[in-house]
Amino acid sequence: MSLDNFFYPKSIAIVGASNNPRKFGYELMKNIIEGGYRGKIFPINIKEEEVMGFKAAKTIKEVQEKIDLVIIAIPAGFVPQVVQECAEKGIKNIIIVSGGFSEVGKEGKKLEEEVVKIAKENDIRIIGPNCVGIQNTEVSLNASFVMRALPGSIGIITQSGALGASQIYMATSEGIGFSKFINLGNACDVSIPEAIKYLADDPQTKVIALYIEGVSRGKEFMEALKYATAKKPVVVVKAGRTEAGMRAVLSHTGSLAGKDAIFDAVFKQTGAIRVETLKQLFNVARLIVEQPPPSGKRIAIITNAGGAGVLSADECAKHGLILTELTEETKNTLRSFLPPIASVLNPVDIIASANMEVYRKTVETVVKDPNVDCLLVACVVPTFLGMKPDEHARGVVEALKNVKVRKTVVACWMAGKTAEPGKKILSENHVPAYSCPKEAVYALAKYIKYLEFKKASKNME
Question: Which of 109, 193, 319, 322 is the most buried (most CB within 10 A)?
Answer without folding.
Answer: 193
